[in-house]
Amino acid sequence: MKVPDNTLGSVRNFVYTELQTLYSPAELRIIWDALCEVFSSVQPPPAKLSESELLLFFNAVKKLKKGMPYQYVTKNVHFYGLQLFVNEYTLIPRPETEELADLILKNHPNAILHVTDACTGSGCIPLALQSRRPQWKIQGFDLFPETLAVAEKNAVRTGLPVSFFRADALDPDTYVRLEKTDILVSNPPYISAAEKTDMHPNVLDFEPQQALFPEGTDPLLFYRRLALGATQCLKKGGFFYAEINQYLSRETCRVLQEAGLSNVQAHKDLSGNWRFVSAQYL
Fold first, then answer.
1. Residue 162 near residue 155 (C-beta atoms within 8 A)
2. Which of 79, 253, 264, 265 gives 279 a disulfide partner, CB atoms 3.0 to 4.6 angstroms apart?
3. Is residue 215 classed as helix, strand or coil in its secondary structure?
4. If DSSP codes are grouped into helix, strand and coil, which group holds residue 262?
5. Backbone angles phi, psi at 279, to 5 degrees
6. What's 196's DSSP letter?
7. What is the crossing angle of helices 95-107 and 124-132, to 10°?
8. How far apart are CA 249 and CA 247, in angstroms?
């Protein structure tokens, strides 16, 4: 693991050589840019890296060769114009989830609203909303203290006044205790056990299982609780939004309807998959 010198160009050649059998050229460009953003303080060649920076690149390559997603290597991800911290206790925010934020912002351009995010993870959804609607009062909750610590760190990092607290999205009392809210939003665990065989190993091996898969055999477990919870914590006329399993859009809509929500709709993402639902409590 030697490079001829500490210039950024030599380190780039080393990184590409070590990883070229594992990643496509397009992926390598993204990974290289991500590594440079976090690990390098120098400008393009012929500027030189310090020994400590060089070691960061070497260690990053070791992790990447084991399949670790580059976002976990750098502990950094861009989401909705924000730079967020992520680690093994949070899912890596996906572009599809940016579309969920888009949907909410498009549907509520002017009103001053109170928003609650269930299963907040890294806090990406409430922070994205707060960045575009500074007049909104926004909060998020999660069950796991380690995950909440990441969300709170991201609130500090972004300087956005989102509050986070610990609560269980599957506990009916959670929604009874909540202050009445205008919007309840969530991106809960929704992947069924049967889908594991189709998933990339770097997701299964590194992303938190509890954020991917609901316990037991019911992939709609969280939606059943969230739908009932929405009828308890939403103000009259309030809205529920969620990211969903693209293969279970009809079933998810039926769960929301049976819980007593109205105006239930499924929405496609930019790839044409049924990725989101919205509903209203009347």
1. yes
2. 264
3. coil
4. strand
5. -155, 170
6. G
7. 40
8. 6
Report the C-alpha gap between 189 and 211 in whole angstroms.
Answer: 5
Q: Which two tokens stand for residue 266?
A: 């499924």
Q: Which residues of 11-41 are buried (b: 16+ CB within 10 A; e: fewer)?
A: bbebbeebbeeebeeeebeebbebbbeebbe
* More reliable by pLDDT, 150 or 204: 150
Q: Residue 238 pairs with which residues in a beta bridge?
A: 281
Instruction: Name the amino acid, one letter, at 88.
Output: E
| CA separation for the pair 249, 66 (Å, rounded) | 35
Note the pLDDT tens digit of each residue in 199-257. Answer: 777 777 778 887 777 787 889 999 999 999 999 999 999 999 999 999 999 999 999 99
Tell the CATH superfamily of the 77-281 domain: Vaccinia Virus protein VP39 (3.40.50.150)
**Tokens 């992520």, located at residue:** 86
Distance CA 245, CA 240 (A): 16
Please identify which residue in the block is written with the tokens 């990211």.
Answer: 243
Helix, coil or strand: residue 268: strand
Q: Is 231 exposed, middle or buried (0-12, 13-18, 19+ CB in 10 A)?
A: middle
**pLDDT tens digits, 58-97:** 999 999 999 999 999 999 999 999 999 999 999 999 999 9
Does pTM surpass 0.90? yes
Q: Which string of DSSP letters, residue by residue, matches 137-187?
A: EEEEEES-HHHHHHHHHHHHHHT---EEEE--TT-HHHHHHSPPEEEEEE-
Task: Fill in the DSSP letter of residue 144.
Answer: -
Report, in angstroms and rounded to the nearest whole number, the Rg of the chain calculated over CA atoms: 21
Within the chain, all domains assigned CATH 3.40.50.150 are found at 77-281
CB neighbours of residue 211 within 10 Å: 19
